[in-house]
Design a protein that fits this description.
Oligomer: single chain
Bound molecules: 2'-deoxycytidine-5'-monophosphate
Number of helices: 9
Strand content: 15-25%
Shape: globular
Number of strands: 8
CATH superfamily: P-loop containing nucleotide triphosphate hydrolases
């Protein structure tokens, strides 16, 4: 019989729900690999925009996605030999990511790449469709949420650390708009799948959420 595939913990949820922080901490505690799938959509958005491609053209953007050489190393992200770690976090890449993420061909092109991260001893993957589409056989599926107000506050705090002049009202509106776009798109919309466990992190410290995920994972063993 073939060896079983390495275990996956899928952590999905809306933007600024704390998925990245929690997923990275859980991966570190377990010694697992970590996949930030949003970074892939951000890379495709960024590079496509830089090349002047039409961000609504599925064929054109899928072709770009299929031919990128992406490397995650020491918490940095490299594309075709260029360090894009900071650039992909910017607003331009974020907006472009949310546009290219609705294209079915792009989602398909990124599928094999994402599944390639599944290596021993295991993987923690964060995104929108990790449990529903990319790793439907994940050992544990978490759906992480927080109220829009709490998510706007968290993002505000992050941006203030970078000395940006963001306003709370604009951030809250942006989060509501993104939620709407991510959950109403036809291809792999953001949804909590039936076998995912929802954790509402509003008012919860990071350590407590991490402990809860680790406890739930131990129960699957
Ligand atoms: O989580 P993030 O903000 O880095 O994601 C960037 C964009 O990519 C966001 O608009 C949602 C989209 N995305 C997606 O459609 N599927 C994923 N698995 C991850 C992100």
């Amino acid at each position: 019989m073939a060896d079983p595939l390495p275990p996956v913990i899928a952590i999905d949820g809306p933007s600024a729900s704390g998925k990245g922080t929690i997923a990275e901490a859980v991966a570190q505690r377990l010694g697992f690999h970590y996949l930030d799938s949003g970074a892939l959509y951000r890379i495709v958005g960024l590079v496509s925009g830089e090349r002047g491609a039409n961000l609504d053209n599925d064929l054109e953007i899928s072709n770009i996605s299929l031919n990128l050489n992406i490397k995650f190393e020491f918490s940095r992200v490299w594309v075709d030999g260029r360090d894009v770690s900071e650039l992909i976090r910017g607003e331009v890449a974020g907006a472009a990511a949310s546009r290219v993420a609705v294209l079915p061909g792009v989602r398909k092109a990124l599928m094999a790449l994402q599944r390639g991260f599944r290596r021993l001893p295991g993987l923690v993957a964060d995104g929108r469709d990790m449990g529903s589409v990319v790793f439907p056989d994940a050992a544990l599926k978490i759906y992480l949420t927080a109220s829009p107000e709490e998510r706007a506050r968290r993002r505000y705090k992050q941006l203030m650390e970078k000395d940006s002049g963001a306003s709370m009202a604009a951030l809250l509106q942006d989060i509501r708009d993104r939620d709407f776009r991510d959950s109403t798109r036809a291809a792999a919309p953001l949804l909590k799948c039936a076998d995912a466990i929802e954790i509402d992190t509003t008012g919860m410290p990071v350590g407590e959420v991490v402990a809860q995920v680790l406890h739930l994972y131990q129960k699957t063993q």
